[in-house]
Amino acid sequence: MKELGYSTERIELNGSRFLLSNGYMGYRGTLEEAGKEDLVACTLSGLYDQAGTGWREPVNAPNGFYTVLSYQGQPLQPRAIEPATHEQQLVIRSALHRRKTTFALADNRIEIATERFLSSADVHLMALEYRFRSTEVGTVMVDTGIDADVWDLNGPHFREVSFQAAGSSLTATALTNEGQVVAVATMVAGLNGQGATLQREQAVLNRWTIPAEAGREYCFYKYVAVYTSADPECTAGRDPATVAVEGVRHAAEIGYAKLYARHHACWAERWPRSEVVIKGDPEAELALDYSIYHLLAAAPSHTEKASIPARGLSGQTYKGAIFWDTELFMLPFFIYTQPQLARGLLRYRYHTLDGARRKAAEYGYRGAFYAWESQETGDDACTYFNVTDVFSERPLRTYFRDKQIHISADIAYGIWQYYLVTGDESILFDGGAEIILETARFYYSYAYLENSPCCSPSNEE
């Protein structure tokens, strides 16, 4: 999928259209030099936070891909300088993002070409290849590092951010309002000499000053590792920042080409079991492939304690919550093509069963009443007043969480369909049967016979 030309009006749309995701995190299809005004976001799966009285939503990690190229002291950013040419591409077969931009200056043309991916072989890793060329001799500066001034819908979610620099390795450690730690580490390879460290209020950067030769192409690689205190690697008391630094150093040792080969192999294994060929209609086939890409990209393969939010990992809309759409609309695709991923999505509902029990008890019922908007615990994130009257601007009481009782049946149905199609009885022994039983108990306690003398509301005895 490719788009030609640059327009500020399409930044928000393209952020979702060119999204990269690996089930652990999603990185919007923005340019490397973009900041929060362009809605840059690295959305983390299953890690939520609430700022004040705002909606609780997923956390966006500090931006480890942040890179700005300057020529003769002038930053090359499309918002400031309209590109002479611009091309953006998403290679859906290998989950790879590419961009190519040419800036026409008074006496020079600078061409930037990048490609990046979020590793599916190691979901904590991201990698970037950055190339640039100047048609004339001049001084080029590369500022690259971590930008912690992130875009949020209902933030800010970081009450504290600290930075560390050790050569070309940079680290940002952020503490959320709810006490979770998010660590991002970066390392650059391919630039000669030692970059000067730039410390800003909400960013840490390395700056390389390069006397660029006319017509010569320069290339460097950037490796990013993201870990949180909720990750298994860090729950044994290990510091997420230390784990992230180890991860990014190991990635730099492996190198971009091998990292990409491992990532590509994961997607090469998925596609033959997922694709549908539509003969004679390439446009329809592209649309279907694009939908399949987003399903595969959003599904968490690293854990059973997360699922697919309503908007995938494209941002914080819908609070990053898991809806019944996952079991009814997405699960059938995974059951028939990626049963192991389907099993993980269903196991998420087992890990959140206690939250469904708490919700049922809150309303005076037995069993499990699953959330309309489910997050990591299964407790309902849906607020009672979540719509505003367009005339009076007063919040309106809604009844989504109260009346949407079909959700529990949707989940039980999904479990049974998985069993019927795959024949995998273990899903029943590993929590599936318990879920079905608890949802049945909920409906039994919820139901009443409308015309029964003992249950009729009009019976005064």
Strand content: 25-35%
Count of runs of 4 or more consecutive helical residues: 10
CATH topology name of the largest domain: Beta-galactosidase, Chain A, domain 5
Q: What CATH architecture of the largest domain do you see?
A: Distorted Sandwich
Backbone CA Rg: 25 Å
Strand order within the widest beta sheet: 1-8-9-10-11-18-15-14-13
Order of SSEs: EHEEEEEEEEEEEEEEEEEHHHHHHEEHHH
The number of strands is: 20
Helical percent range?
Answer: 25-40%
CATH homologous superfamily designation of the largest domain: Glycoside hydrolase, family 65, N-terminal domain
Number of domains: 2
Brief characterization of the structure:
Helix content is 29%, strand content 29%.
What does this structure look like?
With 461 residues, the chain is of the alpha+beta class. Helix content is 29%, strand content 29%. It has helices at residues 11-17, 240-254, 256-270, 282-298, 325-337, 339-351, 353-362, 400-403, 406-422, 426-446; strands at residues 2-4, 20-21, 25-27, 42-49, 57-60, 67-71, 74-75, 85-91, 96-104, 109-118, 125-134, 138-147, 158-166, 169-176, 181-189, 196-200, 203-212, 217-228, 385-388, 395-397. A nine-stranded antiparallel β-sheet has the order 1-8-9-10-11-18-15-14-13. Strands 7-6-12-17-16 form a five-stranded antiparallel β-sheet, with no helix packed on it. The radius of gyration is 25 Å and the shape is elongated. It starts with a strand and ends in a 15-residue tail after the last helix. Residues 456-461 have low confidence and may be disordered.
